[in-house]
Structure formats: structure tokens, C-alpha cells
């Protein structure tokens, strides 16, 4: 899509990620609190300013990883497409800012993190019994490659 507004927001996870397994694939959402900080020169100390809240949406594998990795209070960096929505609810105008996340990670300037790749699912064994060994696809020495492949002997059934 052209002319999308891609932003990078640095803040804290404000709500526990909510995971949903939808027909279109996994989806997760959480609220992100982004607070500005500035140096108050009169007091000579850092002061918190206004806090903006974003609803962060994650899809597919990112949704699964967000649910397994993030907790309330975690410092994170979110890159995504900004979508500002205006709505009228009970006679009042509401404005919400959503981020359709492309990438999410812990903010390593404020702590450490241990990266783990998601595990691959184990192949399911069939209820029909033990798996058959893979055939030996090597051709016999001196063969032209057009002969039928030799097979390993089948295991004997135990009764």
C-alpha cells in the first residue's frame, strides 16, 4: 500500500496481550503506553509528560510470539502502520490510535532479554503402529539409475 504512515513507538505494555485464533489466522492485541519525558530545568530532574495510548494489533506468527513473550510493564519498541480512527459513542466524539504491528521487541536500553525461536511441532505418529523406515533411494553400484530402488527390509511384526 502506498502512503502508509509507518511509525516506531517506544513505551510500556499497558494491558495483558489478548490472543484470538480467528478464521484468518492468529491475532493478538494489547495497549501500549508511550510517555514523553523532559528535563525540568528549574528542578534539574526528569519529569513525565503526557501519555499516549495505542492499541497494538499483531497478526499470524507475531501474534503467537507476542502472547508468549510480553507482560504488563515490559518496555517495548513497536514498528507498525498507524491508523487513527474517529467514532461517535453515546453522543461523544472518540479518537483512537491503532498500530498494525510489523515488528515488536523488548527495549534493551532498559533491560535484558533472551531470544528463543519458537519450537517446531513434533510430527504426529499415526495410530496404525510404528512408522515404516524410509526407503533406500540409492541405486546399486553400476546401475543406470533407471532400475527400481532397493528397499530396506520391512521390520517383522511383533505379536
From TrEMBL:
Keywords, alphabetical: DNA-binding
Pfam families, per the entry: SSB
Keyword DNA-binding listed: yes
Stretches for region Disordered: 110-159
InterPro entries, alphabetized: NA-bd_OB-fold, Primosome_PriB/ssb, ssDNA-bd
Keyword DNA-binding: yes
Biased composition (Basic and acidic residues): 149-159
Superkingdom in the source lineage: Bacteria
Alphabetized GO MF terms: DNA binding
Oligomer and partners: Homotetramer.
HAMAP family, per database record: SSB (MF_00984)
Protein name per its UniProtKB record: Single-stranded DNA-binding protein
Species: Streptomyces longisporus
Amino acid at each position: 500500500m502506498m502512503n502508509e504512515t509507518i511509525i516506531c513507538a517506544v513505551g510500556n505494555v499497558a494491558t495483558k496481550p489478548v490472543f484470538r485464533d480467528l478464521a484468518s489466522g492468529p491475532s493478538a492485541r494489547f495497549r501500549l503506553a508511550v510517555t514523553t519525558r523532559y528535563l525540568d530545568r528549574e528542578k534539574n530532574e526528569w519529569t513525565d509528560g503526557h501519555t499516549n495510548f495505542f492499541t497494538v494489533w499483531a497478526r499470524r506468527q507475531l501474534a503467537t510470539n507476542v502472547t508468549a513473550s510480553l507482560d504488563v510493564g515490559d518496555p517495548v519498541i513497536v514498528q507498525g502502520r498507524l491508523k487513527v480512527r474517529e467514532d461517535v459513542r453515546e453522543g461523544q466524539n472518540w479518537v483512537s490510535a491503532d498500530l498494525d504491528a510489523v515488528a515488536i521487541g523488548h527495549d534493551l536500553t532498559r533491560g535484558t532479554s533472551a531470544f528463543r525461536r519458537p519450537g517446531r511441532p513434533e510430527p504426529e505418529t499415526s495410530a496404525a503402529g510404528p512408522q515404516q523406515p524410509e526407503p533406500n533411494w540409492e541405486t546399486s553400484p553400476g546401475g543406470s539409475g533407471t532400475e527400481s530402488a532397493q528397499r530396506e527390509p520391512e521390520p517383522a511384526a511383533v505379536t
